[in-house]
């Protein structure tokens, strides 16, 4: 496996972890929807 | 910068030198499409994206996940095709393509779809530069909207980058055949 490919794969994995972490860390999003009256 | 610095390393196999900036721009198109694709797949897998009510994927049809994966694969494939504008396989059909292998690709066969694609991408994604509409209460808000926006914002650059790479390809094919 080339070094370039390894670096690119690591960047993709880091992006996945970052986005998934951000989605999980910010909760379900339900409170905002409740506050706006969208969820009963 | 010397003339050598301005040419991409893999350009030797192409007809005429590929400017380094064009090579970088072509590679950048793939990275522009990636964060939104990752976000979409994570969203379809059930990670909390902030959609509620009728927008919640849990309330959606069974094919949401395959649809989202197919959409992401399609957008990454289209982004990958822009690499052909700076690689030899954008000039001569590669060996693994049946019937057409080894034949020369006419410049307009690449330039016209790439130019139309860049116009479509600019029309589609430039409005994102002016912000997301968050009027729908079932759409993500607050931090969830910020994550969605951060993932989709790179798409704004996709169209202009593709347009620039297309111009570089057209100029190079005109000069070097």
TrEMBL record, chain B:
Source superkingdom: Bacteria
Membrane-spanning intervals of the chain: 28-47, 67-86, 107-127, 147-171
Keywords: Membrane, Transmembrane, Transmembrane helix
Protein name: Uncharacterized protein
Organism: Actinomadura montaniterrae
């Amino acid at each position: 496996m080339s070094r370039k490919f390894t670096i690119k794969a690591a960047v993709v994995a880091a992006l996945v972890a970052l986005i998934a972490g951000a989605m999980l860390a910010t909760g379900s999003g339900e409170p905002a929807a409740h506050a706006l009256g969208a969820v009963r | 910068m010397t003339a050598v610095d301005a040419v991409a390393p893999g350009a030797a196999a192409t007809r005429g030198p590929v400017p380094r900036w064009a090579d970088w721009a072509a590679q950048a198109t793939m990275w522009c499409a990636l964060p939104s694709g990752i976000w979409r797949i994570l969203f379809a897998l059930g990670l909390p994206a902030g959609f509620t009510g009728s927008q919640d994927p849990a309330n959606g049809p069974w094919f949401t996940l395959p649809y989202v994966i197919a959409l992401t694969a399609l957008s990454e494939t289209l982004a990958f095709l822009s690499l052909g504008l700076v690689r030899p396989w954008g000039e001569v059909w590669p060996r693994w393509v049946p019937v057409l292998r080894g034949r020369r690709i006419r410049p307009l066969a690449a330039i016209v779809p790439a130019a139309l694609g860049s116009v479509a991408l600019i029309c589609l994604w430039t409005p994102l530069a002016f912000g997301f509409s968050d009027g729908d209460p079932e759409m993500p808000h607050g931090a969830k909207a910020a994550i969605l926006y951060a993932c989709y914002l790179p798409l704004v650059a996709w169209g202009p980058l593709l347009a620039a790479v297309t111009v570089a390809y057209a100029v190079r094919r005109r000069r070097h055949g």
